[in-house]
Specification:
CATH superfamily of the largest domain: tm_1862 like domain
CATH class of the largest domain: Alpha Beta
Number of domains: 3
Number of helices: 14
Bound molecules: iron/sulfur cluster
Structural class: alpha/beta
Distance between the termini: 35 Å
């Protein structure tokens, strides 16, 4: 049986795409192997959101090139956000790559796989279409209890620094029935937690005839037996309606865990980023969430050192982060992405040393705020969905997404919800023990 390995870089959307591709390859008779094993086909699913992610892909390609030159019989395919309109330039630069595929475009790799198996085959056309039904789903091949379910692809927002709309295209929502069908399929195979994905997940349904919304999905998934938790990301403040916020509060299974990138706490910077909202509007959305769900966990993303970011603008960001007290802050330093408005029209004028200092200051605030939030959990009892367990140790997450490590026992099973008493806290996780011996099985 021919073998393949997929390295996935970047976001959850890429992870979902990799699972789809893996499902397609397995349907064609291929077997997945670990990265360090030899394989007939290596696929790198790339990310272009930051230079650092691209550099990681280049280093993987360099490693595979060496293997190929040393005589190993292997094929290489590159997919994802690095593969844009200029594939010709890429194939000149990396002539040893056998196939290139844009995000969501599986045919070039499936075709390559078929021709490796049988070199007499020519272009087999749309294999993804042949596999339809399979390929529109993640087919998470449930090894665990959680699965990603993309519900809306692409993005219409065109923030000046962001390459996503250029690589993943405009917003396209999947029909409600298709999403529900997939989640039922996953539930039947042991999946207990689904994460609904979209670059701006609240944009779900805008482009569908009946204009369903994310709230429509939440209320329908609520009724699916076997699914105990629903997560969703990534949020965009302007699309986050009161109806969606209220549905999170009302639906038992939907986790009160929001991922809302603010990117900057300065209105002038937000304007240059073309984020489409003011700081005051962002704060108002957070207030609405906390009014409805006082304990909601709120994570955010921040970019430091965008073109023209002054010290004053950066201080405004720090002030906002202190004011809101986010549970999690994902921070990145700006790097120009080819083809974006910022790369073409703006000057990357914040020195890298300053970017590093700003990054560090945001990280310090993150550590402080998550430690404060986690400390409040001391001596509390929380419900933890178990993700891994052996005879002595188990790990899972609370509904709010916090990692909890606790002492295991024979009764602790992956997929169960355990009530855990918290005895220790750090900025990044909680520790505890089972509050009572009874397992709160949700299956
Ligand atoms: S909302 Fe802005 S940052 Fe997010 S994916 Fe769309 S363009 Fe990129």
């Amino acid at each position: 049986m021919p073998t393949f390995n997929i390295t996935t870089l970047g976001c959850q959307m890429n992870q979902a795409d990799s699972l789809k591709l893996a499902a397609g390859l397995e349907k064609l008779g291929w077997q997945s192997v670990e990265k360090n094993e030899s394989a007939n086909l290596f696929v790198i699913n790339t990310c272009s959101v930051r230079q650092h992610a691209e550099d990681r892909a280049y280093s993987q390609l360099g490693r595979l090139r060496k293997q190929k030159l040393s005589g190993e019989e292997l094929h290489i395919a590159v997919m994802g956000c690095m593969v844009g309109p200029k594939t010709d330039q890429l194939s000149k630069r990396f002539p040893y790559v056998d196939a290139w595929a844009r995000p969501q475009e599986f045919d070039p790799i499936l075709n390559l796989a078929e021709t490796i198996k049988d070199p007499s085959e020519g272009d087999l056309g749309s294999l993804s279409a042949l596999l339809d039904g399979g390929m529109t789903r993640t087919y998470a091949l449930p090894a665990g209890i959680s699965a990603y379910v993309p519900v809306v692809h692409g993005c219409d927002k065109f923030c000046t620094y962001c390459i996503v709309p250029l690589r993943r295209g405009r917003e396209r929502s999947r029909p409600v029935a298709d999403v529900l069908d997939e989640i039922n399929w996953l539930a039947d195979r042991g999946i207990r937690e689904v994460t609904l994905l979209g670059q701006t997940v609240e944009a779900y349904g805008h482009d569908l005839a009946e204009h369903p919304s994310l709230a429509t999905l939440f209320r329908a998934i609520e009724k699916i037996e076997g699914i105990s938790r629903v997560r969703f990301l990534t949020s965009y403040p302007k699309d986050m309606t009161n109806a969606i916020i209220d549905s999170v509060a009302e639906c038992e299974k939907v986790c009160e865990h929001f991922n809302i990138p603010v990117q900057s706490g300065s209105n002038s910077m937000l304007k240059r980023m073309r984020r489409g909202y003011m700081v005051e509007e962002f704060v108002e959305r957070v207030e609405r969430i906390r009014l409805k769900m006082p304990n909601a966990a709120i994570a955010t993303d921040v970019i430091v050192g965008c073109p023209g970011e002054t010290e004053e603008e950066f201080q405004e960001t720090l002030n906002l982060l202190r004011q809101i007290q986010f549970d999690t802050i994902h921070v990145a330093a700006y790097s120009p992405r080819p083809g974006t408005f910022a790369e073409r029209k703006m000057i990357d004028d914040v020195p890298s040393e300053i970017k590093k200092q700003r990054l560090h200051l945001v990280e310090e605030i993150h550590q402080e705020s998550s430690l404060n939030i986690n400390q409040k959990m001391l001596n509390e009892e929380v419900e933890v969905l178990v993700e891994s367990a052996n005879e002595t140790q188990a790990t899972g997450r609370t509904k709010l997404g916090t990692i909890v490590h606790f002492k295991s026992s024979n009764d602790v099973k992956i997929g169960n919800v355990e009530k855990i008493k918290i005895t220790q806290t750090t900025a990044w996780s909680l520790k505890g023990h089972i509050a009572n011996s009874l397992s709160l099985s949700v299956i």
